[in-house]
Amino acid sequence: MVLTCTSLVTSFLDRERTIAAAEFNRWLVPPAAIAVQMCIGEIYGFSVFNVPLTRLIGIKTPVVGRDFTIPQVGWIYSIALIMLGLSAAFLGKWVERSGPRKTMVASACCFSGGLVVASIGVGLHNLPIIYLGYGAIGGVGLGLGYIAPVSTLVKWFPDRPGMATGMAIMGFGGGALVGAPFGVELMGHFKSATSVGVREAFLVMAACYFVMMCFGALIVRVPAPDWTPEGFVKVEKPRALVSSSNVAADVAIRTPQFWLLWAVLCLNVTAGIGILGQAALMCQDMFGVSPAVAGGFAGLLSIFNMGGRFLWSSASDFTGRKAIYAVYFLLGSALYVLIPFAQSRGSVALFVAVTAVIISMYGGGFATVPAYLRDLFGVLQVGAIHGRLITAWSMAAVLGPQLVNYVSTYRKEHGVPKAEAYTTTMYLMAGLLLVGLVCNLLVRPVDPRHHA
């Protein structure tokens, strides 16, 4: 009986069982992708847990020497994103072979299971267990859930690859829109004289996210090998950087184009992720707003992160990927310089407007890069290539948040007012974007000798 049930489940998850019938509507696939990615995108709302995790013993105020510090807590976020990149890189080929349904279910098990383990770590006040749960196990769930829909939607929308990749990961950028206020509400509900509510919040979120991710896995489909959209005509003379040939994943990582795009993604993400990971705390330090308002600010950034992923990547179908990345880097560097100016003037409105545009381009960079890869390397193993490329995200997950955390903490400890502690980091981020601009301008078409 057990073997029969196991074989039925395994059969249901097989890639062959997800091949769509001729009458299947391809517009049902984006909701499946968004259902999974909005759940794992909760990582972008993690900043609402930063301060409560530093008060697990003190409850109202941290107990020095016993409670965790902000830099220590910040590593939870970084480890999760490091594991996202590593798991996507090492499991990319498995994802291509197994199909999106099996991958999404595996993602749900890892991500929700990681939250359960993290809740145990919170209850025991054991930071390594939290690192293991939310960071390592949950991070594997992030990586699987992130790349699962990409190659699937690129195949469903060969006529609009930029829009397709925007839809594929738009939900991830919007995760904090739900996750941040959901986390704040749950902590408020479970908060007591002996608990800040984090442990209980993690458990409830684990259950809710598992159900939602399995729903996405249930409805996802892959197109038949010979399927094309009605009325689709392949362009005979594509743009200079758009190839009609394919490059295998193992070959792609030996080309200069791959490593230039690796640097492009790493630098774009390093700049944006520092703000996104510490959004709530930055807003409180720079303008003295309440934790509730700061949590709302993190949720607002999530809207722009999500919207930017769709709008900027869709625009790249008309401008080309290289041109749209030039906009990300040039405009982004100018806006980072404006953040210290907004703080010095005490202008919350200018700060919100500037950071919103920055985060929209940060999200746009994520959504555009799979289409950039598809243009250069074809669709053969674009999911696996994408998985390897987002190891750049792993590097950025260390550089961005830690630059913000350690530089701002160092400046605060040396007498710099909280409101001015982030100035140096913003100028540094602007410089990193200009380096990314140079890398983007160096991208050229892939040499035909690398084509499959």
From the N-terminal CA to the C-terminal CA, the straight-line distance is 46 Å
Secondary-structure element order, N to C: HHHHHHHHHHHHHHHHHH
Report the structural category.
mainly alpha
Poorly predicted ranges (pLDDT <50, ≥5 residues)? Answer: none
Number of helices: 18
- CATH level 1 name: Mainly Alpha
Helix content: over 70%
What does this structure look like?
This protein is an all-alpha fold. The chain has a single domain (29-224, 238-450), classed as MFS general substrate transporter like domains (Growth Hormone, Chain: A, Up-down Bundle). It has helices at residues 2-13, 29-40, 50-53, 70-98, 100-124, 127-156, 161-173, 175-190, 198-219, 249-252, 256-277, 279-287, 291-319, 321-344, 348-377, 382-389, 391-413, 423-441. α7 runs antiparallel to α13 and α12 (279-287) packs across α13. The mean pLDDT is 86.
